[in-house]
Amino acid sequence: MCPLKAVTGWDCPLCGGLRGTHALLHGDVAGALNQNLLLPLYLGVVVLGLGTVLFGARTGRSWSWRMPTWGWVSVVAVLVVFTAVRNLPGVTFLPSGLG
After folding, report:
1. Nearest to 53 by CA among 45, 44, 62
2. What's residue 94's pLDDT?
3. Domain coordinates of the chain in residue numbers?
4. Does the pTM of the predicted model rise above 0.90?
5. What is the largest CA-CA distance in the chain?
6. Residue 35 exposed, middle or buried by CB count within 10 Å (0-12, 13-18, 19+)
7. Average pLDDT over residues 19-28
8. DSSP 28
9. How many of the other CB atoms lie within 10 Å of CB of 87?
10. What is the band of 92 on the pLDDT scale with cuts at 50, 70, 90?
């Protein structure tokens, strides 16, 4: 269980990610999105990171990309808003599915 959820009862931005990935690997897209709506974004970042590492290993050249400051601010803002909204009492479609 997520340490934040264990202590506070709140879903963090990553809660439901592993269950969602499992559902996605079994062809259940709706179930995956039910666990964590940001899962496609997270998996895209993982694939991009792995692709960068494999590209460097295969070609011997490293490829790097630096995210601008506004990008990091945007990522943090999305994660904070997502966490706040998914923990509101009346929101039934964003919690991770575990009580």
Report:
1. 62
2. 77
3. 3-86
4. no
5. 52
6. buried
7. 92
8. -
9. 17
10. confident
